[in-house]
Amino acid sequence: MKNRITLKDLAKDLNLSPSTISRALGNHPAISDATKKRVQKKADEKGFTPNSIASSFRMKKTRSLGVIVPRIDIHFHSLVISGIEDFAYKNNYNVTIYQSKDALKREQEITKILQTRMVDGIISCLSIETTNCKHFKKFNKLGVPLVFYDRVPTDFDASKIVINDFESSFTATEHLIKSGCKRIGHIAGNQKTNIFKARLEGYKAALKSYDLPVDETLIMQTNSLSYDEGVACAKKYLSLPELPDGLFCANDYTAVSAIQVFRKNEIKIPQQVAIVGFSNYPISRIIEPNLTTVNDRAFHMGEASAKLLIRQIEDNNDIIDSEIITLKTELIIRESSRIG
Amino acid sequence: MKNRITLKDLAKDLNLSPSTISRALGNHPAISDATKKRVQKKADEKGFTPNSIASSFRMKKTRSLGVIVPRIDIHFHSLVISGIEDFAYKNNYNVTIYQSKDALKREQEITKILQTRMVDGIISCLSIETTNCKHFKKFNKLGVPLVFYDRVPTDFDASKIVINDFESSFTATEHLIKSGCKRIGHIAGNQKTNIFKARLEGYKAALKSYDLPVDETLIMQTNSLSYDEGVACAKKYLSLPELPDGLFCANDYTAVSAIQVFRKNEIKIPQQVAIVGFSNYPISRIIEPNLTTVNDRAFHMGEASAKLLIRQIEDNNDIIDSEIITLKTELIIRESSRIG
DNA sequence: CTGAAAGCGCTTACAG
DNA sequence: CTGAAAGCGCTTACAG
User: Fold this and answer.
1) CATH 3.40.50.2300 spans which residues of chain B?
2) At what angle do helices B75-90 and A75-90 cross, to 10 degrees?
3) What's phi and psi for B129, nearest 5 deg?
4) Can you give the residue ranges of the HTH lacI-type domain (chains A, B) (predicted)?
5) Which 41-100 residues of chain B touch chain A by CB within 8 A?
6) Which of A133, B38, B228, B251 has the greatest number of C-beta atoms within 10 Å?
């Protein structure tokens, strides 16, 4: 950053004051068109670009959003970030990203950095270790709006963008029931996490509402819904006296691994076991048979987060304390549950 | 951002000057330990956090890196960003990201934004449309270092982090040859892009060096190496009088689609056709049979980019103009090429 | 060991 | 329609 042209330089060249240059470039109505043209021409000629740090400093607005995600390389989060960046870009905001690596300590450190960086607002998905959100409270005092998505705090009021995990799971399970399944299993995520708890509850509620029994031997608990855990769960199903005829998995990885384990054991999908996943990962379209899954709208979640956050930044109307937006999901029906 | 505590506030409280507060918090050697302690205590007590925008403005250093990627939601790029963020975080840099969406126009706009944002350095992978990099030249004049990765400019000197596509492809093809393949096909990427050109060349060179003929009917051209294009290519192979016995694909998507098309046609992988992909996408470990592929070190590419960039930012030594670092790849041998 | 002063490049209320 | 002036919150060369 050397010998940048400043407003002062332009002013000297044009025999005008820096105030006038600033206003001309900002298209201020009080400045004559003739002057605006002269200034713009000189600015282009000299390759002037405003120093937005100086402007941010002066205005106490940085037009940047801080985003804290567990990991950027998880597809769900990269889609969310993509949605955030897209919306932010269109509205002239910048996006600065941080990874908590699912570690509370790192998340806390990042909030300290964000506190000094003067971002105009923050979007975050909590780390898996975070049970207490007090490190986010400081932003309330500083007047920096927060929006959480996916893994959201329960211990304090904040704006949130979520999907209806309960309802989505209800619908997914209902789809299996309506397809004729009577013994439906569930591979469940970590029950310390609200979204996975809701998915289990939605599954149970659907069974109940169709007068099907909730058979605990058909519900498999996992820690992180990893591919390997999915393989282990599928093997457990195989060791049961009777196989389930339907399986709703709390994510796509476990659903894919179940498909593979079952097929290796000559079990026909969906004829013998119909399978539904959750999240619409890219692999769900590639695995054979293609996986029926819940589109969790990751990109839209990012867009919605950015939209809500920017509205909160720009609304001087201090009446709204927090806002919770629930996005619609969509059950994408593919071969893995298309029976007969 | 309201009623933030400033150095001046602390100074007033402690009957010291702002200069002393600044130096005390910056652990300046000239300040007595007693004063440092007093200042630190008061700062903690009042919840002081430095305004880093003011500091950036003053120092003309923002400690932030601008990153331009085609899309964040492409796994390769999200891994690279993850590597960048990780290294940057450890070195107290922030990472601001932009997506070009593979559009030259948007890439140009982003460079204009970055010019005003005063980032200390820029990391970028060129958009697919970019053939002319003159919109990056301004950063040379501004003294803002640039590092390109993966898709890098050929028309001007710049620091680059790349892998050796030629050699990696040579090794991958050689592996097929050594496994006993004699008729090896190649699904090639867009030949306007250097990396895909290099992959094709590496494949051809390996054949030649083992005295195998280069059979153009076994080389399929694609536009974007998409899954669907892979399916189409695989079908073309099936329509040939004789199938290849080995297939080196310029990415994993096309390799996966080839596996699926072949298997649907009762062709045994790897016994009848051995297949090798490129990039080590997550799906390569999941597809059956598991895909042999080239680990392109996306995360390390990000780390290396950030490392090189930060070194260029912090080295006042103006002797180095640009630096090109080639990373080692690794051939991961899995079932899809393990013959016999 | 500490302070007074200048200045980074903008923006804007005030004056004319 | 344009300008002079103040100030955002830091940092640091200079002085003592």
Assistant:
1) 62-163+299-327, 165-296+331-337
2) 80
3) -80, -10
4) 5-59
5) 47, 49-54, 56-57, 60, 62, 64, 71-73, 75, 78-79, 81-82, 85-86, 89, 94-99
6) B251
